[in-house]
Amino acid sequence: MNKTALTVHQIARPHGFPTADHFAFIESTLPEPAAGSALVENLYWSVDPYHREMMDDVPGGFALDAPLEGRTIGRVIASRTPRLAEGELVFHRQGWRTHAAVTPEEIRRLPRFEGVPLTAYLSTLGGTGLTAYVGLTRIARLQEGEDLFVSAAAGGVGTATGRFARLLGAGRLVGSAGSAAKVGHLTREVGYDAVFNYHDGPAADLLAKAAPDGIDVFVDNVGGEQLAAAVGVLREFGRIVRVGTISQYNTPGTASAIFNYADIVEKSIRMEGFLVSNYRDMQEELYEFAVPHLQSGRLPLDETVLDGFEHIVDAFLGMLRGENTGKIIVRDRTEASSVR
Questions:
Q1: Alpha helices, H only, 140-186
Q2: Taking the complete model, does pTM exceed 0.70, yes or no?
C-alpha cells in the first residue's frame, strides 16, 4: 500500500482556456477512515467537460485550494464499517485524488457483468452513457427512422449518442467533429452517415450539405453557431436536446446563438436541456439496454485511456482541446499492467 496520497487542487480561476498552472498536486499522508467509513484506493478517474464550468466562480463551482470532485472507481483497502468490505470495488465522486475516505452512503456498488471492463462504468455505463441515453429516450423521445444531428460527435457523449441511436433504430445520422481523423472514425467505426469538420466553413452551409433533407432531432453538446444551423434544418416538430455549451466554456462573454426565432414557433420545435444528475434512477434501465449489446459486441467502447494519475490534468486539458476520441479516462498504472 502507498504510504502517501496525492490530491489535485484548483489554485486559481482561469480567464479563458485553463492551463496546468491552475492546478496543484498536493501530497499528504493517507486519509484515516473514521468509524463507519472506509479508505478507497482509486483506480480509474473520469474527467468531464462540466469540470471546466465548475472552475469558474459560479454557484456550486470548485472551491480554490481544495480537492476537486469527479467520478471515480476504486477499491476498498481499509474498512471501519461492516457495510463496506475490503477488496470491494465501488463508484464514488471524490475523484482527482489517489485515495478517499468514504461512507456507505457516498458510494455505489458496481455490478460485474461478464466481459464488460471496468472503464465502461465511467463511459458507456456511466454518466456519459446515461446522458446519451436520457437525451435520446426521455428528452428527444427518438422514434425509429428519425434523422439525427449530433454536435461534438467524437466526444464521449457524442459517440455514445451515435451508437445508442443506431441501436434504437435511428434513420440518417449526421455529426460534427474537429478534425479529418475524427470525421473518418465516426463514419467508419461509429456508424455516422455523414460528418463534417466544423473548421471547414460556416456551420449552416456544412450542415445543409450533410443533411439536405433536414433532421428530426439535434443533440447539442456545443451551442453557438451549430445550434443556429440546426434550427434552420430541423423539420416540423423537431426537437433540440441541450446537453452542453462547449463553444462558450473557454471564451467568457461569447454571444449566444443567433437564429430565426420564428422557426421555433412555425416549425413547432421543442428545445429542452437537462442535468443527468436528475436521472440517476435510470441507471438500471441503462444497464438493461446497453450491457447485452456490450457483451454481444454490437456496442463497442469508445474510450481514450491515459495511464497514471499524474496525467489527470493533462487528460482534462487534452479533452478541452479535443484530443480524445470517445470518453477520456485516467487509469492507475497498476490496473494498466493487470489488463495487458
A1: 156-167, 180-185
A2: yes
